Amino acid sequence: MISTHVLDTARGAPAAGVRVELFRGAELVASRETDADGRIRDLADVEPGTYRLVFHPPSPFFRRVELELDLGEGDYHVPLLVSPFGCATYRGS
Question: Does the pTM exceed 0.90?
């Protein structure tokens, strides 16, 4: 399982309504929007492999943030912190 959340660090608040897409190769595996708490608790059940996680954040500068992930067995939580001045991500728990 893969989950995520998006935090708008300029506002110091969760970013609701952010579209997040998950691709395996050219195939769209899942597409969802963050809830009122900025979370997607169950984006997709995934098998091991290489995926692209694409965020469309509420930033006037970062129009799209794309991450390539090599996923093994287990659950993954991949948050995005974004502002007009920077963005960061990490492997959460």
Answer: yes
Question: In the chain, how many domains are there?
Answer: 1
Residue 78: which CATH number?
Answer: 2.60.40.180
Can you tell me the distance from the alpha carbon of 31 to that of 58, in angstroms, rounded to the nearest whole number? Answer: 17
Is the separation of the CB atoms in 79 and 56 below 8 Å? no
Distant-in-sequence, close-in-space partners of 25: CB < 8 Å, separation ≥ 6: none
Inter-CA distances, 64 with 25, 90, 93, Å: 18, 17, 24
pLDDT one-digit tens code per residue, 17-46? 999 999 999 999 999 999 999 999 999 999
Separation of CA 11 from chain center: 18
Q: Are 40 and 78 in contact (CB under 8 A)?
A: no
List of residues 6+ apart from 27 with CB closer than 8 A: none
